[in-house]
């Protein structure tokens, strides 16, 4: 890619971003869009849906930027929770890293690269210069200037490690402080026990009761056996949807429209009263439901066991319970509203096999995904495209078209394909047997991250058949030199990727095009009637990997093609404001992990650093500077040792709360008169909502909506 | 190697074994040797050192075999402890595995191999037949007979996995039963806490006291702060040796010999009274010692913390204590007499760095050791030896010499070099920061095992420079074919190795040549005076790797060269009797790990199986049977999955006793009136013996020996 193509791409995307921002600042002020742009505030009752039309509201303003900027981190913490703060810390951390990188890259490395003669172009024609003249490829082979790159790699690694350490330290202390300031919560006192050994004499509930009164007499409080309620849940959702239809019908239809023919498409057959029809059906469903609930629902050999103190729960969690380690497996209980197990399985062996199957599925998905990536990869090589599709020759001759195709189209297509991945990974993670949304999302986050790294980075860099790539990793000795040859040659693709995919994804994140269209059509057809709407939950599993992947690109290309760095800095600056805005207005988190997403960020950063080092080793080898190449070898080793130290120093805090914290919190509670009430609630906290009594038909006359809400809130 | 050379070697070694056995059965009946052949019984007072000379005692008998055979496993368990039983189970397990292997190998595989024509020898001259005609090398390329080997590999793997599972099951249940039947022991109630944060206001003891009374108020009992007593220990051992000399002098010397010149070699200078001289010196040392003891010995920020119940100790052990995971690091306390820390370090970072250094040291030792191995390797190739040492040509022409050299010498030299390894590994493990003999020995056992596998197996198989071998493992794809080519060609070396090294090591184990010589000279020069002698501790760290390595050879060569199997079976039969005899008569274990050595055996067996599979994959490839080669690929994967399942099913039992066991034992103790006394003992159990008051000088007059004994027994 030449400089002018890059500038075209930057121009297009900057224009698009500005357009989106302007549209956003106008649209968000329209009262009708408040559910699209501030659903969180609506749900909390802070934003009013109705408002007068105002001419001022048609003017684009930047007030939202100010409002997103203003809240301090403590305010964010109190309103949004620790997870959101940790999410924002990714941006803060990345901004620090890349601010330093830009200074080094732009003021030291780019001039050094540009003054090289390896690619032997003349200095005159700047716009038509290949981007490669700003990259390390332009430095002469064997040149001593490469020692500048060598030093830059060392200094940069040191700075990143220092920042990683201080950030880990900061977030782990935040996590402890968050725990100290938390109210007593059901999940702090509860564990989930699986693989309960069933004897023929006693049922599951009795077995649990006797086991825990026997071995935890002083701390055991109560338990709730898990039941298979798939069928019940199906019935309930049927009833709910019928109820909704009915309520809608009652509100909208007049007496004249009440009748409809019961045949095909409501056109043939005899006339029936629609309202009556639905009421009848709802009653049938409810009868069915009650019958199912009163009949014994099948018990699953798993139970939520609650304890009187946090320490009690921790003891039962950390020390193996039974002599057979595959029985009485304890696991931290999720928050009651975080419980989610479409694929819940109690058998140890079954879960273990499912785990293996999911790994296999992930790997095959990753490999199969290479097919679209390879096709996209072809688009950056126009000549190849012309061979494949000869009829395009005429169009591709046009400069604008070819620039758009090389600069914009590939990453857009990749983007589209990639948007399918997070839901698939969520599905795989839930098959794996995690018991809560938070765990599923965390696991999916890791999966999506490695998927992205493999399929976007490695697949593009090591273009070629999938088999060839696997072969590369079977010959570890050659990896550095292969990477060093391949990675710099894809620099222009990734610069374009940051500008297009990165910037566009941010502005589309802000603009929320699809929800906007949905809301528009909903209002057009369904009217403004329904009060119900979902506040979207924070998409950690798709957001974090994207942000981290750009970090990986930045770190990897830091000394290879520093031209990427300013664009990344812009990305992170915009991302900081936009995600703050979205977290404050749009998303609400359904759960709180207490910052457990941070270790993923840390690991990804370490991986990026080591990848950079490996490429550096190969690069200095290619540039015939064997001394620099060997002197770089300690760098990845030191980085991995640093990582190992961090794992020992910080990771345990993200897994377990220490005795010190638990006992302090338990002592606080002892003096709290509200604990009696809390224990009562705790006993019922993990009851399955599907087993609560439901009453739809009676509510129809009243203005009440969603009769299940009270039971789901327990 | 040809068949007759092998038979020569078998003959020599069988003769040697019989000779050793005969000598042993005579020598062990001599009253003077009872300390060499039954020190354990002497120490327990079961064997009398004195006895009348008896003509019958000069006749070789096999009574010791009967006596070693007789005791049942339960008797072994009650007299020797679980570790010894687990040690014997290695033989039982190996016997089962190789009994099956011999049946398959000798009756199916050897005939199939022998009927092959690949090596195209004639059938007539059996003694001069190469051993290779009994191995898979003799099977024709592409022959369908190889499917027999393929089936054998599958069936054998299945049988071994079944045996592994049932053995793991058996030993883990034994371990739990052993725990149930154990008396209250100090180490069950105690943990060692390191990295105690020191504040300037309080000393270490106060910090520990306040921390545990704060966070474990109901279970905390007492603590003992660790002190740096290196200097004291030096003084004590000085005093002890002086005391011993003095006591010896008093007993042996008459008044005439009391004087000696104090100059060079006792020849020049003025005459002094030797007794007076030593007495004076001893008193000085004692004064010094007492002064050191009364002055504050430097505290180390680590402490043994004892609890009132086993569950209390487990809670403090398993749940992280402090907010900083690198502080208050808890570790299971070893048995009081198992405590050993020449390199004890409390700092988290220091221990961590030492760990890394030890890993580096192990790797370099392993690589440097290749030098002697490569030289030994040369001995099996006589022609090469003739080139190196031309003057040997004449001798090497003699048939006997060449047979001895190829059949016997190489493994003897290797043996000698190898005997140096266990002490080195013990040293490295103790540098690593383990706090007890048992942990050091367990860690050394693993180290010695991998060292043996690498340096005996791989170094011999992949003969060549060290660099070449490392290169092999950098190209994983080629490993199967390289191994498949190299491993069978070394079959004759390893058959000879089993016969020489294996059988000889067993008979020398029985004969205890070096202790016998030592004891002889001791009696000759020192007389029978000293009552002190050390009962040797069971050498798990050198014995187990040796036994396991033969298992690895057997499994690897099972389908390649089944001729090795009968010799291995003989090895295990002899080993079973000899080690039983030695455990009953010679060794006494200084500690009891409760069977923690078994996981090493299991892992080694799994590694052997996978190695066999990898070789099989390469072998079928070389023999142009690609279908068999690909169909073998699932085998290692299934084996590794089986191993993973075993890790989850059994390994936790070897690390932690579950709540169920702990609570049951604690309940039993509650009703025990002796617990009060036990708690008192517990408080003092981990006091440093170097800080106990010592009194040598007063004892000299009395008949008491070793005044330190009582303090060391606490």
Automatic annotation (TrEMBL), chains A, B:
InterPro entries, per the entry: Csc1-like (IPR045122), CSC1/OSCA1-like_7TM (IPR003864), CSC1/OSCA1-like_cyt (IPR027815), CSC1/OSCA1-like_N (IPR032880)
Domain CSC1/OSCA1-like N-terminal transmembrane span(s) in chain numbering: 5-167
Tagged with keyword Nucleus: no
All residue ranges annotated as the CSC1/OSCA1-like 7TM region domain in the record: 356-620
Ranges annotated as spanning the membrane: 6-27, 97-116, 146-165, 352-375, 416-437, 449-470, 547-579, 600-621
Membrane topology label: Multi-pass membrane protein
CSC1/OSCA1-like cytosolic domain location: 188-342
Keywords: Calcium, Ion channel, Ion transport, Membrane, Transmembrane, Transmembrane helix, Transport
Pfam families reported for this sequence: PHM7_cyt (PF14703), RSN1_7TM (PF02714), RSN1_TM (PF13967)
Domain of life, source organism: Eukaryota
GO molecular function per UniProt: calcium-activated cation channel activity
Annotated GO CC locations: plasma membrane
Subcellular location(s) of the protein: Membrane
Chief site of localization: membrane
Protein family (similarity comment): Belongs to the CSC1 (TC 1.A.17) family.
PANTHER family hit by this protein: CSC1-LIKE PROTEIN HYP1, PROBABLE MEMBRANE PROTEIN DUF221-RELATED
Descriptive protein name: CSC1-like protein HYP1
Gene source species: Rhamnella rubrinervis
């Amino acid at each position: 890619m030449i400089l002018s193509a890059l500038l075209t791409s930057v121009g297009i995307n900057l224009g698009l971003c500005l357009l989106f921002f302007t549209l956003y600042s106008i649209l968000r002020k329209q009262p009708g869009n408040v559910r699209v742009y501030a659903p969180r505030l609506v749900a909390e009752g802070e934003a009013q849906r109705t408002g007068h039309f105002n001419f001022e509201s048609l003017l684009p303003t930047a007030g939202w930027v100010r409002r997103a900027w203003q809240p301090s981190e403590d305010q964010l913490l109190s309103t949004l929770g620790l997870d959101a703060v940790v999410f924002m810390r990714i941006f803060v951390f990345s901004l620090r890293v890349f601010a330093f990188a830009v200074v080094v890259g732009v003021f030291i490395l780019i001039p050094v690269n540009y003054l090289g003669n390896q690619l032997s172009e003349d200095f005159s024609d700047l716009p038509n210069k290949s981007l490669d003249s700003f990259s390390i490829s332009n430095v002469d082979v064997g040149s001593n200037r490469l020692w500048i790159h060598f030093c830059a790699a060392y200094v940069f690694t040191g700075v990143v490690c220092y920042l990683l350490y201080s950030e880990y330290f900061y977030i782990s202390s935040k996590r402890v402080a968050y725990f100290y300031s938390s109210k007593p919560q059901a999940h702090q006192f509860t564990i989930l026990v699986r693989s309960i050994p069933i004897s023929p004499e006693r049922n599951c509930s009795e077995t649990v009761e006797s086991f825990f009164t026997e071995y935890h007499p002083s701390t055991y409080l109560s338990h709730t056996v898990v039941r298979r309620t798939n069928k019940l849940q199906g019935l309930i959702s049927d009833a709910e949807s019928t109820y909704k239809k009915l309520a809608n019908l009652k509100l909208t239809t007049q007496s004249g429209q009440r009748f409809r023919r019961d045949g095909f498409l409501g056109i043939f057959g005899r006339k029936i009263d629609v309202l009556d029809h639905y009421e009848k059906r709802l009653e049938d469903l409810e009868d069915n439901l009650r019958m199912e609930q009163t009949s014994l629902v099948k018990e699953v050999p798993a139970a939520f066991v609650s304890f009187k103190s946090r320490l009690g729960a921790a003891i039962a969690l950390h020390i193996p319970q039974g002599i057979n380690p595959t029985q009485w497996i304890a696991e931290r209980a999720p928050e009651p509203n975080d419980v989610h197990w479409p694929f819940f399985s109690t058998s140890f062996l079954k879960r273990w096999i499912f785990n293996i199957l999911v790994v296999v599925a992930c790997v095959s998905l990753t490999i199969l995904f290479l097919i679209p990536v390879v096709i996209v990869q072809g688009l950056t090589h126009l000549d190849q495209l012309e061979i494949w599709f000869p009829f395009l020759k005429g169009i591709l001759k046009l400069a604008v078209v070819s620039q758009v195709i090389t600069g914009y189209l590939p990453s857009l297509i990749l983007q589209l394909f990639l948007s399918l991945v997070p839901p698939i990974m969520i599905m795989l993670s839930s098959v794996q047997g995690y018991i809560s949304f938070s765990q599923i999302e965390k696991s999916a986050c890791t999966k999506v991250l490695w998927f992205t790294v493999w399929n976007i980075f490695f697949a593009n860099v090591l273009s070629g058949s999938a088999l060839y790539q696997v072969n590369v990793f079977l010959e570890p000795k050659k990896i550095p030199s292969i990477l060093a040859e391949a990675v710099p040659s894809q620099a222009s693709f990734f610069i374009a990727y940051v500008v297009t995919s990165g910037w566009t994804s941010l502005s589309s994140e802000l603009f929320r095009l699809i929800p906007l269209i949905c809301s528009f059509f909903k209002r057009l057809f369904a009217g403004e009637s329904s009060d119900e709407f979902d506040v979207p939950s924070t998409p950690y599993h798709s957001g974090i990997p994207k942000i981290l992947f750009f970090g990986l690109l930045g770190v990897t290309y830091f000394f290879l093609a520093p031209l990427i760095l300013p664009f990344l800095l812009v990305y992170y600056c915009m991302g900081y404001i936009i995600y703050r805005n979205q977290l404050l207005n749009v998303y609400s988190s359904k759960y709180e992990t207490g910052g457990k997403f941070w270790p993923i960020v840390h690991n990804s950063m370490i991986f990026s650093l080591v990848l950079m080092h490996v490429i550096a080793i190969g690069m200095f080898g290619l540039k015939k500077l064997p001394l620099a190449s060997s002197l770089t070898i300690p760098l990845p080793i030191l980085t991995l040792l640093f990582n190992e130290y961090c794992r020992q120093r910080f990771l345990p805090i993200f897994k377990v709360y220490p005795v010190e914290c638990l006992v302090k919190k338990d002592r606080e509670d002892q003096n709290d008169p509200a604990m009696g009430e809390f224990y009562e609630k705790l006993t019922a906290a993990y009851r399955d909502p599907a087993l609560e009594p439901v009453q739809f038909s009676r509510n129809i006359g009243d203005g009440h909506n969603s009769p299940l809400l009270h039971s789901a809130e327990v």
